[in-house]
């Protein structure tokens, strides 16, 4: 009957609710444990010259976590949990240490690989991040320009004066700032001047719609991406298109003057050995 059908649906709904909150709780407590252990690693997604995909100009470090019980857990799941529960500082510090160890090794071997590291905007609050970053660079003898900090535009929207000053201190020290997922944050453009970024990363959601097959040449995404490229050029910022998956998207970006790209068309995030093979190290 309709009535029992409705009851079924409600109990299904309760089931899935229970599942998600239970899952969140399990992932969160595993995460808290993992932060005291060594179950994280970085993979490196090549960043390439848009007009020559074989010219790798750096990489984005992406965090990977394998829990002994829960298996592989995506950063898309655990990063928001860390952010909502006050673990972002510990997580960002862990990532920065992993980065510094790897970059220190490359520097010693004479390899020059600019690496982007994703940082939660919340970590820019407070007095811890800047000295930690500078101490790690110093200890591992890493030239600061080999580190780019990626901060999402959404995270930057609620940026306080303190966060802005911290970013300025990092920029003064030579660390570069990259605005991630650009175009998804609806923020005012004034902050682009204040935060002194050196790079804009155009969000994958726009790149996904650059295909001739669903845009026939002049869809909204195309016009928006063209406007972003023009804005970046007038502010003298580098441009990176993220999430390039097809030849059509790549061709469009070459034609419209984007500088750099990342995406599965060229490579996903690679384990260190595979990345080193790719760059001929
Ligand atoms: P993001 O910084 O925008 O990173 C790009 C994400 O898109 C990565 O997913 C990458 O694997 C994926 N991707 C790259 N190319 C393509 C493509 O061509 N097609 C598709 N469909 N996807 C592509 P991942 O590694 O799962 O990371 C998801 C998000 O988690 C990242 O988005 C970033 O916001 C966050 N994240 C990853 N690593 C870290 C980290 O070390 N610290 C912090 N705070 N956040 C991180
Ligand atoms: Mg990123
Ligand atoms: Mg991104
Ligand atoms: Mg994105």
TrEMBL record:
<protein>
    <submittedName>
        <fullName>EAL domain-containing protein</fullName>
    </submittedName>
</protein>
<feature type="domain" description="EAL">
    <location>
        <begin position="24"/>
        <end position="281"/>
    </location>
</feature>
């Amino acid at each position: 009957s309709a009535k029992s059908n409705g009851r079924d649906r409600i109990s299904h709904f309760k089931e899935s609710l229970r599942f998600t909150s239970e899952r969140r709780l399990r992932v969160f407590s595993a995460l808290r444990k993992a932060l005291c252990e060594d179950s994280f690693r970085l993979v490196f997604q090549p960043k390439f010259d848009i007009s020559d995909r074989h010219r790798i100009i750096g990489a984005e470090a992406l965090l990977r976590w394998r829990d002994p019980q829960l298996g592989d857990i995506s950063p898309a799941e655990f990063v928001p949990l860390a952010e909502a529960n006050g673990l972002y500082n510990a997580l960002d510090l862990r990532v920065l240490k992993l980065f510094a160890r790897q970059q220190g090794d490359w520097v010693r071997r004479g390899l020059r690989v600019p690496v982007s590291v994703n940082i939660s905007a919340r970590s820019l609050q407070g007095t811890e991040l800047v000295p930690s970053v500078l101490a790690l660079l110093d200890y591992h003898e890493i030239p600061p320009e080999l580190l780019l900090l990626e901060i999402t535009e959404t995270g930057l929207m609620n940026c306080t004066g303190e966060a802005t000053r911290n970013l300025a201190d990092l920029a003064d020290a030579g660390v570069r700032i990259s605005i991630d997922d650009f175009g998804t944050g609806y923020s005012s453009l004034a902050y682009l001047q204040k935060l002194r970024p050196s790079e804009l990363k155009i969000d994958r959601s726009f790149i996904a719609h650059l295909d001739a097959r669903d845009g026939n040449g002049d869809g909204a995404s195309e016009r928006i991406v063209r406007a972003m490229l023009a804005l970046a050029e007038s502010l003298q910022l580098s441009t990176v298109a993220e999430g390039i998956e097809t030849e059509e998207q790549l061709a469009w970006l070459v034609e419209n003057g984007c500088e750099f790209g990342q995406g599965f068309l060229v490579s996903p995030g690679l384990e260190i050995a595979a990345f080193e093979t790719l760059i001929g190290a």
